[in-house]
Specification:
Layout: E1 7-8, E2 11-14, H1 18-29, E3 34-37, H2 42-45, E4 54-57, H3 59-67, H4 71-74, E5 79-81, E6 83-88, E7 94-98, E8 108-112, H5 113-125, E9 130-133, E10 138-143, E11 148-152, E12 157-160, E13 162-165, H6 172-177, E14 181-197, E15 204-210, E16 213-220, E17 224-232, H7 233-240, H8 244-255, E18 262-278, E19 282-283, E20 286-288, E21 294-295, H9 302-323
Parallel strand pairs: 1-12, 2-3, 2-13, 3-9, 6-15, 13-20
Antiparallel strand pairs: 4-8, 5-8, 6-7, 10-11, 11-12, 14-17, 14-18, 15-16, 16-17, 18-21, 19-20
Helix pairs in contact: 1-5, 1-9
Length: 325
């Protein structure tokens, strides 16, 4: 048990995932101290078996990650999206977007969540304004006129004028604050895996709309692609549990010769898809960011990009408020 004085900081961030870690670094860039509390053990979440997903990092998000010191640690693992092709069913026609049409910069970058998370954590380790407490279990949350007080299961107490909820769709802070959400299930799940392929993808991202849902082929480094394969939930669970050869045969059917021979590398994952939106993003002495505020369908890759926009806007508001006293 901890009998010492509460740990005082400027901001408490609940959740040390992609949004929470980015928030801490953005605040530190503006001279604001934070304590990040996460239930997961960093050793666990920095393994390839933990997640398996990738994110499409938009140009604006890349700029934020550069400013907060994370991009330099992840640039080598970021594959530029040079073209996007959108096809519908069996139609011979498709939409094609070329990055040259909007300038010389790529349309975005595909980065594995593992790479992004590692880059953020490395930047945090070097930052004296951020203290990470993980793994940790939050026991109680309390609010008085001057501060939010978080008590951990081991007895440690952290106090700050503001708490930020970045713990994802099941945000404990949002639930504690009584902020309601509206949400619905798409009755679909996404099968996610990584494939190595024979022919180069040349930076082309493919979104193929099939009757059951979109089938995305997203370019990664080292002649790999990330597959986000949407099906009805029962079918998705069936697919993810197939034996290796049958699963690969199903993939080959949907690729239809594109990129040549395929090989699935690493585990397969299955994620249920749904929409969730908090009625309010702020309350006295607390704010919500990322999936704690708005969880969305992965199509068009807006989830993390919206979260990074939350980070940029909230950091700017807090740094300005501090500057004004």
């Amino acid at each position: 048990m901890h009998d010492q004085q509460p740990l005082q900081t400027d901001v408490i961030i609940l959740g040390g995932g992609l949004n929470g870690a980015s928030m801490a670094l953005a605040l530190a860039h503006g001279g604001i101290k934070s304590v990040v509390i996460d239930y997961a053990d960093p050793k666990t979440i920095l393994t390839a078996n933990y997640d398996g997903r990738t994110c499409a990092i938009a140009a604006a998000s890349k700029s934020v990650l550069e400013v907060i010191g994370a991009w330099e640690n992840m640039a080598d693992g970021a594959e530029p999206i040079l073209d996007i092709r959108i096809a519908d069913g069996q139609s011979p026609l498709f939409l094609h977007y070329d990055h040259h049409d909007v300038g010389d910069e790529p349309l975005g970058y595909i980065v594995e969540n593992l790479v992004t998370r590692s880059a953020l954590y490395r930047a945090i380790e070097k930052n004296d304004l951020i203290k990470m407490i993980a793994p940790a279990k939050v026991e109680t949350i309390a609010r008085d006129q001057g501060a939010m007080t978080i008590t951990l299961a081991d007895g440690e107490v952290v106090r700050a004028p503001l708490a930020i909820g970045a713990e994802g769709r099941k945000s404990m802070l949002r639930e504690w604050a009584g902020i309601k959400t509206y949400n619905w299930s798409y009755k679909q799940s996404a099968v996610v895996c990584t494939v190595k392929h024979q022919q180069p993808h040349n930076g082309l991202a493919v979104e193929h709309f099939l009757p059951a849902g979109p089938f995305a082929i997203l370019p990664m480094t080292d002649n790999r692609c990330s597959i986000v394969w949407t099906e009805g939930t029962d079918q998705a669970n069936y697919l993810v549990n197939l034996d290796d050869q049958t699963f690969l045969d199903e993939l080959h059917r949907r690729f239809d010769g594109y990129l040549g021979d395929l090989e699935v590398i690493g585990p397969r994952f299955c994620y249920p898809l749904g929409l969730q939106h908090a009625y309010h993003y702020t309350q006295d002495r607390l704010a919500l960011i990322g999936d704690a505020a708005h969880g969305m369908h992965p199509i068009a890759g807006q989830g993390l990009n919206m979260g990074i926009r939350d980070v940029a806007v909230l950091a700017e508001i807090l740094v300005n408020a501090r500057r004004l006293g």
